[in-house]
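Hi C.,

You asked whether I'd gotten around to modeling the 169-residue construct. I have! Everything is below, sequence then structure, no commentary in between.
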Amino acid sequence: MLRILLSLAALALVSTVVVTSQVWAAAVGVTPGEMEFSLRPGGSQARTLHVLNPSDQALAFHVYVEGRNSEWFRVTPDEFSLGPQEVLNVEILVAAPLFSSGEHEVEVCVVSVPPDSTLRLGAGVKVSAHVRIEGAPLMAVQWWILLAVITAALLAGGVVLWRRRIPSQ
């Protein structure tokens, strides 16, 4: 009899956790479902992620980027609260290093937690983000132009000074 009662208690606990997880999983809404970035080395690009609280209670949210090269990303704001049915626009900015190139994949994670949750259990969504870096580095091109102009100016100035110092004969 004790064995049956323990089995029923375990089943009730598992059912509560599963049902609760499914309810909280539905408590995060984001759009778009995928993000695309295309930029030059040394450049930056921003996209907007719309975060929705579809539940009937206030929730706290945390947004972050995970994966290789996640340090290239800045999320603003990265933590916030939303009331029932509220939407917030979150800026996802990627800044590619000067000497980077190629295709990169990361995940933008959006996690919601009820503010009164003592266990900090919540739900989350991952949005795939694809970053394409191609072309010449934007800043490198600008620096080469600047270097060429300075060199030409120095050479022209040097020639003028040299001609004035040498007496004509």
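If it helps when you're writing up: The chain has two domains: 26-135, 136-169.

Thanks,
B.
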